[in-house]
Specification:
single chain; 5 helices; alpha/beta; 246 residues; 5-stranded parallel beta sheet; 6-stranded antiparallel beta sheet; 2 domains; Elongation Factor Tu (Ef-tu), domain 3; Rossmann fold; 20% helix; globular
Length: 246
């Protein structure tokens, strides 16, 4: 349902801070005149307007937990020739403003009251909405079983590196796989996520009642098909994809 149909108007967001996540990714903490509660997994629409009136619009998943009230975080990856992402990476700084509306989205959301166990599978920047879910889980002090299987090209491409490379506690297991090179001494996975890897992950964890997959279209379709082939009921699987359709 379009945002205009559910009463979400554009408002002006102010950049409070900027954090470098990777060499191509930054997180922008925003303050809003009308902060609204959201469900982890939802996104916001961003609109930029040039002096000549030209507008560019893009949607970005919320990275923060809803418990972090009054502000929210958007993590933006630099996209080649991307009008909006280029502005964020090359122009935007603390104190700058732009238009924002949301939160938007329904099926690809989760809160602790929805229960678990959880299986979260991310490819690249697809980890952003899943991070909101994990941060919400932590903020609520939940210990329900959760597994994050996260595929990145290299260690330098891992979003929220300090947070995710040291997180394996309170029922949460984070499994990294690096597909295009890994540092000396790396003990994680080093191949693309395939049915064999999914089978191994499922065998070592509780059977998930909720599965969320986010990433490029081909990645999402491959992972979803692999999970169904291992016996995961398709009704448990929710997907969010970006990029051109396959």
């Amino acid at each position: 349902m379009p945002a205009t149909e559910i009463g979400l108007d554009w408002q002006v967001a102010t950049i409070d801070s900027v954090t470098d996540e990777t060499y191509r990714t930054k997180t922008f903490r925003l303050s809003l005149p009308d902060w609204r509660p959201f469900r982890p997994g939802q996104h916001m629409d961003v609109r930029l307007t040039a002096p000549d009136g030209y507008q560019a619009q893009r949607s970005y998943s919320i990275a923060s937990a809803p418990e972090t009230t009054d502000v929210l975080d958007l993590t933006v990856e630099l996209v080649e020739e991307g009008e909006v992402s280029s502005w964020f990476h090359e122009v935007a700084q603390q104190g700058d403003t732009f238009e924002l509306r949301g939160p938007i989205g329904g099926p690809f959301t989760w809160t602790v009251v929805d229960g678990g166990p959880l299986l979260l599978v991310a490819g690249g920047s697809g980890v952003v909405p899943l991070m909101s879910m994990l941060r919400h889980r932590k903020a609520r002090g939940a210990s329900l079983a959760a597994v994050l299987l996260y595929s990145s090209r290299t260690i330098d491409d891992v979003f929220y590196r300090d947070e995710l490379l040291s997180t394996n506690s309170n029922g949460l297991q984070v499994i990294h796989t690096l597909t295009r090179g890994h540092p000396h001494g790396w003990t994680g996975e080093t191949r693309r996520i395939d049915q064999a890897m999914l089978t191994e992950v499922l065998a070592d964890s509780e059977s998930p009642s909720k599965v969320f997959i986010c990433g490029p279209t081909a990645f999402v379709e491959s992972v979803a098909a692999g999970l169904v082939a291992t016996g995961v009921d398709v009704s448990r699987i929710r997907t969010e994809r970006f990029g051109p359709t396959a």
